[in-house]
Structures are given as structure tokens and as C-alpha cells.
Amino acid sequence: MSFLNVYQASFGQNIIFPFYKRATAIGICNLVARGITIAAPMVAELPKPYPACVMLFFSILQLIDVLFLPTYS
Q1: How far apart are CA 5 and CA 51, in angstroms?
Q2: Residue 73 included in any domain
């Protein structure tokens, strides 16, 4: 879901990703998203509280990342 949001934002506004950095940004996001997707079945097999903790960790990490996005003026 995060990859789709970044993909849409990168082609929607030049403020977030300038045109000359789009390919690199999308490539890095694609690499990270595929890595997380590969690890998802392993996390799902962990004992009961750990999958929820992993999901909570990534949600908090994304909240912190959003604070560093540029504002529109």
C-alpha cells in the first residue's frame, strides 16, 4: 500500500520527487516493498503478539516519515 502511495505522489507533484529523481526513488521503494513482501509469510508464522507488533512498528515508522514530507505552499 505504501508503494502505491509513493508511486502516485511521485507522478502527481514535482515538489515531493523532482522529475530527475523519480526513477531512483521508485526503484528504491520497489526494492524495499519487495523485500517486505518476501518477509511477510515469515512474520505471519511468528507467535501471537509478534505479527501485530511488527505491523505497529511499521505504522509508527510511516507516521514519522510523513512528518518529513515537504508542505505545499
Answers
A1: 23
A2: no
